Amino acid sequence: MTGVTRLIEPVRTAPVTTPTGRVAPRIGWTFVLLTALAIVAYAAVPYFTASLEALSEAPGLAADYVGKPAFVLAALYLHIAGGATALALGALQFWRGLRTRAPRVHRWIGRIYLLGVAVGSLGGLVIAPTSTAGFVGFFGFSTLAVLWLVTGWRAYRAIRRRDVASHQAWMIRNYALTYSAVTLRIWLPLMIFAPLLVGQTPDFDNAYAAVPFVAWLPNLVFAEWLIRRRGLPSYRLPPART
Ligand code: HEM
Q: What does R_g of the chain's alpha carbons equal in angstroms?
């Protein structure tokens, strides 16, 4: 058990049976799948089809990596490959039809997904200290990388014990963190252009200083809400000792 989870105790609420025909969860899942694939295509694939120098001509972070040491570049590419694999595959794992009709496929996708998370988070830990967002980038992205690894490990341990409910809960938390690659790229333009609402000029630096935390903290809160709503093992702080 990690230091974080030792502080909090599990709460099991009554399972919620979701009628198979309900439309809202399907729309939500389709939205998550399509946005995840769009970010893989738009943000990750270009790193494997063009050089950093070529990518630097368009807006983005690629220019910051030109001339960085080889081990930072290796970590960046491993991070992007692992993260993109996890982002593209993760949503499929929440598709009940796949889990029930092809459990072997679910298991194999799960193994590849967790490998992507492991490689992506270790790569992320190496590049976090070089982030454009300075110390905020270092602390925000490093915390995200550690939580990404730990929640993936807890999900794996839970299913090895055949504890399906805990496995689902940890996978919801883990994919909520993976999905921060999407939410970051939604928050960032919103925050860059928000100053226009009060008559000020768009500001990339100010917006980028917030995303290392804003990209994933709301996702975790949403994940915990979803876990409780589905009656899966959730968490609450233990009562204070008197
Ligand atoms: C969830 C844990 C993740 C962590 C901790 C993390 C961390 C980082 C860090 C520290 C950077 C460098 C940012 C900078 O230079 O300021 C970065 C860049 C990048 N990450 Fe991640 N990341 C995560 C997830 C993902 C995922 C799932 C993808 C999949 C698409 C991804 C794709 C990228 C790309 C493409 C870049 C290069 C910068 C850009 O062009 O946007 N990351 N990440």
A: 19
CB 124 within 8 A of CB 152: no
- Angle, alpha carbons 45-141-28 (nearest 5°): 60
How far does the chain reach from its first CA to its final CA, in angstroms?
Answer: 25
Cα–chain center distance at 38: 15
Pseudo-torsion of CA 199, 180, 31, 39, nearest 10°? 80
How far does residue 76's CA lie from ligand 1's centre (Å)?
Answer: 8
pTM, to two decimals: 0.90
Q: 180-193 and 23-39 helices cross at what angle (nearest 10)?
A: 80
Ligand 1 centroid to Cα of residue 79, in Å, is 7
Helix (H) or strand (E) holding 10: strand 9-11
Q: Are 68 and 130 in contact (CB under 8 A)?
A: yes
pLDDT tens string 58-93? 888 999 999 999 999 999 999 999 999 999 999 999
Digit-coded pLDDT (tens) for 213-223: 999 999 999 99
Q: Which of 72, 80, 135, 173 to mutate to test the pocket of ligand 1 (most atoms within 8 A of CB)?
A: 80
| 15 close to 227: Cβ distance less than 8 angstroms | no
Place of tokens 């001339």: 67
| Three-state DSSP class for residue 69 | coil
For residues 101 and 91, the answer to whether their CB atoms sit within 8 Å is no
pLDDT tens per residue across span 152-190: 999 999 999 999 999 999 999 999 999 999 999 999 999
